[in-house]
Design a protein that fits this description.
Blueprint: E1 2-4, H1 7-17, H2 30-44, E2 54-58, E3 64-67, E4 72-80, H3 83-93, H4 115-124, H5 135-155, E5 165-172, H6 181-195, E6 203-207, E7 211-216, E8 219-224
Parallel strand pairs: 4-5, 5-6
Antiparallel strand pairs: 1-2, 2-3, 3-4, 6-7, 7-8
Helix pairs in contact: 1-2, 3-4, 5-6
């Protein structure tokens, strides 16, 4: 995808490989989302002088290979979104329902809904039961732990290549209202203590439109998202 000898080159070239992600009904592919996410990951991290030269390569299992001056890092990507929410977004992008609408809480155990059931909900546009207390943070933490755990399983299967270091990048599309990371991250870390992804992924990144959350076995840190646009 790109090679950069300096930090300045990296940020210039990230803009050239950046992608606009189409709506779900208008040609969006998994590659769109993966490249969108990794561009923002690389654009938001504070690389060191001795990390260069740097190269990023698109591949499969894992989805990217990041080559630094002294190490190779596999980056696996996943999108955290409920299946029903993704289907609903597809239908809305086709023009169904009002432009402004209510967002409903999601659950990992929610049953799969048919197109007709989702269409009926979209057209009715009724308010949801809403979020109470710390339910937004608990739902988010459970969801992130679930998607992280699934990728730990994938990385343990035959055909998945592990490198000097291995990262997981989660594109966060989980529905929620005014998520408070300060409350949510400790809940997530308690889930990850049980699932223990750190023997597979030394770092887990969770990306939304404004925050890149970096998790490792010893704690977490936050980075402002650089969208790498001119």
């Amino acid at each position: 995808m790109l090679v950069a000898d300096t930090f300045e080159q990296l940020h210039c070239r990230l803009r050239t490989v950046n992608v606009d992600v189409p709506e779900r009904s208008k040609g969006r592919t998994q590659d769109h989302v993966e490249i969108y996410s990794v561009v923002r990951l690389l654009g938001s991290l504070p690389f060191k002088l001795d990390d260069f030269p740097l190269a990023i390569e698109k591949r499969e299992r894992p989805d990217f290979l990041l080559t630094l001056a002294k190490s190779r890092i596999g980056i696996e990507h996943t999108e955290a979104i409920p299946e029903n929410t993704a289907k609903e977004a597809f239908l809305r992008s086709q023009g169904h329902g009002p432009d402004l609408h209510f967002t409903r809480p999601a659950s990992l155990t929610e049953a799969r809904k048919s197109r007709s059931a989702l269409m009926a909900e979209i057209e009715a546009d009724k308010p949801s039961p809403g979020w109470v207390g710390d339910s937004v943070e608990r739902s988010w933490a459970e969801a992130m732990a679930h998607f992280i755990g699934k990728k730990v399983e994938v990385a343990g299967r035959e055909g998945f290549t592990l490198f000097d270091e291995n990262w997981l990048l989660v594109y966060d599309n989980w529905p929620g209202a005014a998520l408070q990371h300060q409350k949510a991250v400790p809940i997530l870390l308690s889930h990850l203590h049980i699932k223990s992804p750190w023997s597979t992924f030394s770092r887990v990144f969770i990306l939304d439109e404004s925050v890149l959350l970096e998790l490792c076995q010893t704690g977490c840190s936050f980075h402002a998202v650089n969208h790498c646009v001119p």
